[in-house]
Amino acid sequence: MKPLDRFLKEHRELTRRYFLRLGGAGMGLAVSAGRVRGNEISPELAGAIAALEPYLTAQDEFRDVSRGKPLPHKLPDEKKSEVGMTRDTWKLEVISDPDHPADIRKPMTRNAGTALGFSDLMQLAKKHAVRFPKVMTCLNIGCPLGMGVWEGVPLREIFWLTQPRADLRRVFYHGYHNDDPEQLFQSSLPMDRVLEDPFGLPPVILCYKLNGEWLTSERGGPVRMVVPEAYGFKSVKWLQQIVLTNLFHANDTYANGNNDVDSAMKTWAATLSIPRKVKPQQPIPVTGYAQVGISGLKKVQVWMEAKDQPATETGRYYATAPWVDAEILPPPKRGAGQWKGMDDSMGMIGFNEGEPKEWPLQLTRVHWAALLPGLPAGRYTFRCRTIDQQDHAQPMPRPFRKSGHASIEQVSVTVEA
């Protein structure tokens, strides 16, 4: 099957109006080079779209930023079994903080034989399991680690099993760390985020599946935390202990690195493909992705600036530059291609009968494309940005590096014969 045919099969049938908009995206150009007839698309842009990465990332293709010496997921199978990193041996302790105790009646401990096992989690999953799409992304890395559909049991269901009574303000948690205190990686959440889902967000989950398959060890299996709106450091891998505490502040490992540990995902865009050298007056196909943060995504915009004629009065963060809208590509089609193999008996949060309730989906990644007009010979700078649902243009409203990547990307393009 040809790449473009495969792309179209895995995505919705696009209307002629959609393709016409796509062919004319960019600088308000006449669609001579990108002219569309029927369901055809300009060959320049068709090739760029066909080469796009799949919407969902296979487990073994996620970018890995795991910590540990050795990396826990690279331990021998015998050692993984010994330390509870297999589904057969996994146990989760849920205890009260000895220094700032929470009042709970039934702590779950290994010593007492009351720790939660994987089979116990699966029993809870029969009634409480949820599934939602989320892009996994790092606070300090300028590209997503991978996009997936995560499945698990809401953390609050395990919380209620401890029969809590009073003095609970935060949840601390950590995963396996080679039994070395110096390698401990921990994170935390306020109790209200565990018990209630604000703004229509999915719940915080104890996750055991990714894209319909059991979590691999490299992805944090057998069980990891997944916090929908948060950066990856909140979604701790190889989960082994949860501590319920009356302490009022966070204890995250990332707090020691001058990071904003309560920062939710931002909305921003970057390019995936753009030719660095083109001939004069040759249309320029561009593709990219956008991370859809807590404030959603309204638009992706692009701008090509001539270096010998820089724009004037563009304002802070190029606010008044002549940006134009790119095209946000549609979602993959349910029941075909990469969605295949998912259990349709369990609906996904944000979907209705297999279709997204809105697009783009919050907390995910989407692709975009544009066909820019041919340009005279010279050197240029290409930029792209997002406009969120609150009408904030990237990098606003949080331009600061330690609360997540948001800078406007710049790509040099040379036009020469």
How would you sum up this structure, described in words?
There is one protein chain. This protein is an alpha+beta fold and 417 residues long. The protein folds into 2 domains: 199 residues, Immunoglobulin-like (Sandwich); 194 residues, Alpha-Beta Complex (Sulfite Oxidase, Chain A, domain 2), CATH 3.90.420. Helices cover 13% and strands 27% of the residues. The protein has 7 helices and 23 strands. The strands form 6 sheets. It has a 5-stranded mixed sheet. Strands 4, 5, 9, 10 and 11 form a 5-stranded antiparallel sheet that branches. A 5-stranded mixed sheet has the order 14-23-22-16-17, with no helix packed on it. A hairpin with a 2-residue loop joins strand 9 and strand 10. Helix 1 crosses helix 3. The N terminus is likely disordered.
Short structural description:
This protein is α+β, with helices and mostly antiparallel strands. Helix content is 13%, strand content 27%. The chain has 7 helices and 23 strands.
Percent of residues in helices: 10-25%
CATH class (first level) name of the largest domain: Mainly Beta
Q: Can you tell me the overall shape?
A: elongated
**What is the subunit arrangement here?**
single chain
Question: How is the topology of this model organized?
Answer:
Blueprint: H1 3-10, H2 16-23, H3 43-50, H4 77-82, E1 91-96, E2 103-104, E3 116-117, H5 118-128, E4 130-136, E5 146-154, H6 155-161, E6 164-166, E7 170-175, E8 186-190, H7 191-195, E9 205-210, E10 213-214, E11 224-226, E12 239-245, E13 268-273, E14 277-278, E15 284-291, E16 299-306, E17 324-325, E18 327-328, E19 351-352, E20 355-356, E21 365-372, E22 378-387, E23 410-415
Parallel strand pairs: 1-12, 14-23
Antiparallel strand pairs: 1-3, 2-6, 4-5, 5-9, 7-8, 7-12, 9-10, 9-11, 13-15, 15-21, 16-17, 16-22, 18-21, 19-20, 22-23
Helix pairs in contact: 1-3
